[in-house]
GALNT1
Amino acid sequence: MALLRCHNNGGHQIFAYTEDLALRTDEVCMDASSASSQIKLFGCHGLGGNQAWVYKDQQLKHKASQQCATIVGEALMLEKCILGKPTQIWLIENFPDT
């Protein structure tokens, strides 16, 4: 998964946060296999696990590892959550941050 500037044309840059805690675009979901690993897109399976994310305090916490989605260069990685860290702040529109 690579990070690119928003082009505001939708398509592959639109993700949905689903009731089963997945972040998906089309048929692929954000997935991380272990702590401190790179976040990748993988076929959605609907079972949670590596594809379950909790959105709280503008952070995306990987439920299995308890680490946060973090921008590192042009990659998206799991790292220890640090509240207010600029590379860990995410905005999910039309979703009540809990």
